[in-house]
Design goal:
This protein is of the alpha+beta class. The chain has seven helices and six strands. The structure holds inosine-5'-diphosphate and magnesium ion. Inosine-5'-diphosphate binds next to loops.
Length: 167
C-alpha cells in the first residue's frame, strides 16, 4: 500500500550539516520525496505535532529542541512516499533513544543524549500511516506536495501571504 511518511531533519542535524548524509541514508529505502521545505517551527506547531507527549516530563525541553532553541531555528520537513514508507523510514532512522539505536542507523550514527537528558536524535519519522496523515496535514498544504494520497478539494481561500514588493 502506498503510504506517506513525514520526516523532519531536526535542528541538531541542520546545525551539524548532516542533511546530505541523512538524505543519502534515507535514499536506501528507495522511497520518493514528494514535498520538502525549510520551516521555522512555532510553539503552536511544535505542541500540536508532539501533542501525544504533552504529559511527559521531557515535553518542554522537546518543544524547545524542535523549535531550535539549542541549535538553530530551522527544520527541514520532507514527505516520503511509497509502499510501507513509515516502517522503512523508521527502520533506517533507528530507535528513539540514540544510545539504543542500531549503530548504522541515522540516530545510531549521528544522535546523542545531552547532559540535560535531551535525546538529540536528528530526525523525526511518522510512526504509522495514520500518524503520517495527521502530521503531513499539519506541516504541509496539499499544493506544496507533488503527489497527494488524501482527498483534496478546490476552495476559494483568503490567505495572507508575503509577496515580493513591486517597484
Ligand atoms: P519517535 O521520535 O521515535 O517516534 P516518540 O516517542 O514519538 O519517539 O518521541 C518523540 C521525540 O521525543 C523523540 O524523537 C525524542 O526527541 C523525544 N523523546 C522521546 N522519549 C524521550 C525520553 O525518554 N527522553 C528525552 N526525550 C525523549
Ligand atoms: Mg513518534
Amino acid at each position: 500500500m502506498t503510504e506517506q511518511c513525514l520526516v523532519l531533519i531536526k535542528p541538531d542535524a541542520i546545525i551539524k550539516h548532516l542533511t546530505g548524509d541523512i538524505l543519502a541514508k534515507l535514499a536506501e529505502t528507495n522511497l520518493h520525496i514528494v514535498g520538502s521545505k525549510v520551516v521555522q517551527v512555532t510553539k503552536e506547531l511544535a505542541e500540536e505535532h508532539y501533542q501525544h507527549l504533552r504529559e511527559e516530563k521531557f515535553f518542554d525541553e522537546l518543544i524547545k529542541y524542535i523549535m531550535g532553541h539549542y541549535h538553530m531555528k530551522s527544520v527541514l520537513a520532507l514527505v516520503y512516499e511509497g509502499d510501507g514508507a513509515c516502517a522503512k523510514i523508521r527502520k533506517c532512522a533507528g530507535a528513539t533513544n540514540p544510545e539504543e539505536a542500531e549503530p548504522h542507523s541515522v540516530r545510531g550514527k549521528y544522535g546523542r543524549i545531552t547532559s540535560k537528558g535531551i535525546f538529540e536524535n536528528v530526525v523525526h519519522a511518522s510512526e504509522n500511516p495514520k500518524e503520517g496523515e495527521r502530521e503531513i496535514k499539519l506541516w504541509f498544504r496539499p499544493d506544496e506536495l507533488i503527489s497527494t494520497i488524501y482527498p483534496t478539494e478546490m476552495k476559494e481561500a483568503k490567505i495572507e501571504k508575503m509577496l515580493w514588493k513591486e517597484d
